[in-house]
Amino acid sequence: MKGRLLSPGWVLLHLVFLAAVVATGWLGWWQWERAHDAGGSFQNLGYALQWPLFGAFTVFLWYQVVRISLGSAEEEAAEPVMAPEPSAPAADAYEEADDVGSPSTAVPNRVAEDSGPEHPRRSPVPERAPSVTEEEDPQLAEYNRYLAELNATDSRRR
Question: How many angstroms separate the CA atoms of 51 and 39, rounded?
């Protein structure tokens, strides 16, 4: 895994980070000397203290990039996640609320959300919500009409 960090692309990235650290160190030293010259000011002194912080951030960023890269290499080497065989229809992902029982009051089934080793990871994009009619929620329907009107107005201006 660590041999991956010595590939040509990674060596180039290490050199770029090293050049950035050296450059920020040199700029900090230059501003420090400039602040102590006859024409120096507090602005130069501020920059002299700021450039080393940029260099420290560069080192921190390099550390994070390497750490994430090593972590992703370990994940690639791990056992792949197998999709479970469908044992129940997709409608079981939601269970109806006890009091009303309408589709708009469906709540997520906590058992279906289990992401244990036998379940694959869920998509980060949520499923599309069911459309709402005017009878179900007149305030939401009015708001949707308002948004459609704004979109039509904006489209005409372009």
Answer: 20
